[in-house]
Amino acid sequence: CPVGVGCSSVEKKIYVHLNYTLPCVRLLNATHQIGCQSHLSGNVGVLHVLESEENLDWVLRSGLNPPYLVILDSPLFTRSIMMKLKNGSSRVAGVAVVAPSTNPPDGVSPHTNCPNENTGVYTEKYDPALAHCNVTVWNPLGSGLSYEEFDFPIFSLKDDNDTKVIRQCYMDHNRAVNGSAPQHPLCAMQLLSHMSAVTDTATCMRRSDLSAFSLSLDTVCDPLADFNVWASTRPLNNTAKGHKEGESVVVAAARLDSRSFFFDVAPGAESSVSGFVALLAAAHALRSVTQEAPPPRNILYAFFQGETFDYIGSSRMVYDMEKKHFVVDLDNIHSLLEIGQVCLLSSSPLPPSSFQRFLRARPIPGVVIQDHQSSFTNRFYESMYDNAGYLDISYPPDLTPEQQLQFVTDTATALTEVATVVARSLYAQAGGDQARLSSINADPQMVTQMLYGFLVRSNNSWFQQLVPSNLMSFLADRPTNLYVGVLNQHSELTMLVQHLLANLTGTTVNITQENCNYQREDEQDKANKHMFFYVWVQGAAPPNATEREGFCTRSTVRLTSALSPAFDLQEYTSKDYSTWTESRWKSISGRIFLVAGHELEMLTLGVGLGVLITSLLLTYAMSAKADILFSSGREPVNATY
Amino acid sequence: MGIKNPFIDGEVLSFTSPPFSPCDSLCAPPLLRAFFWLVSLLLASLVWFISVQISNKDSAAQQKGLLIFGVVLSVLLQETFRFAYYKLLKKANEGLLTLSQEETMPISIRQLAYVSGLGFGFMSGAFSVVNILADSVGPGTIGIHGDSQHYFLSSAFMTMAIILLHMFWGVIFFDGCERQRWWAVAAVVVSHLVVSCLTFQNPQYVGSLVPTYVILLAMAAWAFHTAGGSLRNLKLCLTCKDTDFLLANHRPR
User: Fold this and answer.
1) Interface A-B: count of C-beta contacts within 8 A
2) Dist. CA A249–CA A296, nearest whole Å
3) How many CB atoms lie within 10 A of CB B87?
4) What are phi and psi of A34, to 5 degrees?
5) Residue pLDDT, tens place only, B5-41
6) Ramachandran category for residue A268: left, alpha or beta (phi over 0 → left; psi -120 to 50 → alpha)
7) C-alpha distances in angstroms, B202 versus A9, A16, B196?
8) SS3 state at B166
9) What pLDDT band is residue B43 in, cutting at 50, 70 and 90?
10) Probe site for chain B from A625, A638, A640 (most B CB atoms < 10 A)
11) Best of A11, A12, A13 to disrupt the B interface by mutation (most B CBs within 10 Å)?
């Protein structure tokens, strides 16, 4: 709007749009729907800033202007308060949680107590005594809020100017003064996050399938899916699937994804990043020794996506191996080493891990490396607070982003030691020469740069060098989001891990960009594309130049599908495989405004109707009596016409 | 033949003389007038748009000046088009008169004035208020930035005043043109300018609404007088002595 004249748009006088809104969305599986839902045109509620749990009484019982939209500070975002709000949902229009800028001192985990309890290896049929976390409760701080269903929207707000405006509006208009009711106009908020899918995955997939035949129906949900990233120290022929004679493989596994209560927020620092960064660093440490003194067994690095949601990635890989759609099959696996949560430093059942899915198919020897004896030490498991701050990744003040990237933090040093241990164990497990073990060391510089890239800012100079130019737009000025996302949605995380692994385990080859893109070393080469993956990356700009010098990296990195077998088999009520889907929605927004009192509205309507009726009557009366009323005019009969 | 021919059977009145139905004269003018008003608005906004583009966007004083200029220009254009419309109607009426066999016009210039003023006012009112109505449909009301809550009510009253004023101005204006009383025409233009400029008083709704309503009452009285009304007639109507008066003093209008 033009400066000086002022925005004359009436809408801008009424509404203040919220810029930063993080909703909670609806996810569905074979039996349930979880998450939040709003009405089709949004939920409107009078603002109420909750002061304590006792203050809930105003919202649920005594308040005079329901429905209320409750603003919570994060210490009040607990299970007991949310359950009470859920039960009184006729008077609750929605909830907005103000996220603090620093992590809360006590642990908060919205995940369940026993993650993935139905799709692991401990079921009623196998070791029922260990099923359902009978022996060890892995996530004791888990409130399970992420898996509850709410029929009002729940949004997360940052503690910034918008939130100050909201609080000020509440203070000005909605506070009850000396026990009397607050006067209209009252401050209100509208939150819109209408989800299209309902009931469960089978229902929404059925409705989506129908949309192929009808123009008016839309797809209502999408399966959660992405890609697993894998690479091997000895190249494997990617076109020959199924059992490989003579191949004995040690699988080194790590999980990629994470989640939180709110949509698309998943920093997953301790839950996931610690594990896969350690594995990446171990892979890098093993690069030179596996070229010079290759061990008898192959080492296969596998990074699984979607593990948070009932092991999507690992169940898919096991399924592909069983159906002979993968380069090796289950008989080729010698053992498995998995890295779990390893950043916080303190014979029991296996924690929730991808290894459990392999065990369901075949008894394979294996071990999971983790930093906890029994329950998780992670106090923020699968929560939005599981971020760089929690891992104490702190940089001295006054460092530029470039200097921060290079600075080796204490966390990085500790994680490097873990990576070294992992690398040496893998080499030993693969039957390598014992004498060379001491020469295998992970590089702390590499580890700290990876931690910076994933937990602080993915758009940094190192990551920029490793990716092809067409994928630069995925890099962002914020921590990487580890949420798995839906099918056909390219995730930043998978792309980064793929190219990082290529760079850390592969070699630079001196071929032209065209050959590189065609997956061949020269025009006549037809064989190498089955064994290797070639990618032309941007590289760095040499000093005193602005153009980047790209180069071709050759590695054994591949992507395989991480879509739950339940969707290929169309078994949407499967109990064996993950059936998680995410609902679709049209738009998500929030705004605040004042609502007029009922009296003023009725007055306006009454006045309008009164004026209308009066004017009609007047017009009729005047028209009926027109002869009399307008008769004394000096009417010139024969015109000046 | 058992079928009644409507052109012969005198009982079906609307097909007998006069050959022009009342709708010819009474429906077209407001629509046409509304169209004329739209054209004047289009011209005014075109000029305003161009001048805003070439002006200095950062200077608040210049922008405010430009707004005042825009308003004045719009008023002058509207009045010009009202005059043009008057001329057009006169020409049309003369044409009709020569075509038909009647000696007097089927519709008096006074009725035309009223009806055209109404069309003008209706279009002006619609433009003023439709935007505001559209935004009032949502759940919120004005006030979060500190503006008065009574915005919608005041806009409604202002719009009503403008529509009625246009009607009265139409009557006075046409009568002034008929009788060559240019001071009446000038008074209409001046009062239109005054009322438009009063809206700059907003958000002091009292400051803009009260004078507008005062002017409205004055114009109402003037138009009533111009159209042939008088206090005596009013008293006669109100005390229900009108039927006797009619019988005694019936004259064709």
Assistant:
1) 125
2) 9
3) 10
4) -125, 165
5) 333 333 333 333 344 444 555 566 677 778 878 888 8
6) left
7) 15, 22, 11
8) helix
9) confident
10) A625
11) A13
Of A224, A294, A210, nearest to A266 by C-alpha is A224
| Triad B136, B142, B147: Cα angle to 5° | 145
What is the structure's pLDDT at B249? 60
DSSP one-letter code for A142: B
Which residue of chain A comes nearest to B60, CA vs CA?
A4
Task: Write the DSSP string, A254-293.
Answer: EE-----SSTT----IIIIIHHHHHHHHHHHHHHHHHHHS
Contacts of B5 (CB under 8 A, 6+ apart): none
Beta-strand pair A551-555/A533-537: antiparallel
- Joined together, the tokens standing for residue B165 give 């004023």
Average pLDDT, chain A: 88
Q: Minimal CA–CA distance to A374: which of A126, A130, A110, A103?
A: A130
Select the residue of A4, A629, A641 nearest B237 (Cβ to Cβ): A629
A269 or B98: which carries more pLDDT confidence? A269
Q: Are B164 and B171 contacting, i.e. CB atoms less than 8 angstroms apart? A: no
Its pTM surpasses 0.90:
no
Nearest CA in chain A to B251: A631
* Beta strand pairing call for A558-563 and A92-99: unpaired
User: CB A516: neighbour CB atoms within 10 A?
Assistant: 21
For residue B70, what are the contacts with CB-CB under 8 A and spacing of at least 6? Answer: B44, B47, B48, B51
Burial group, residue A415, by CB count within 10 angstroms (0-12, 13-18, 19+) = buried
Nearest by Cα to A500 from A545, A453, A540, A544: A453
Q: Is B139 on the interface with A (CB under 8 A)?
A: yes
> For residue A557, what are its two tokens?
């990195």
Q: What is the DSSP letter of B104?
A: S
Cα(A583)–Cα(A116) distance, rounded to whole angstroms?
21
User: What tokens appear for A271 in the block?
Assistant: 């839950």
Burial per residue of B106-140, b for 16 or more beta-carbon CB atoms within 10 angstroms, e otherwise: bbbbbbbbbbbbbbbbbbbbeebbeeeeebbebbb
Of A223, A289, A227, the closest CA to residue A256 belongs to A227
Helix axes B22-54, B109-136, angle to 10 degrees: 50
User: Per-residue pLDDT averaged across B139-146, rounded?
Assistant: 87
Q: Is the ipTM of this complex over 0.95?
A: no
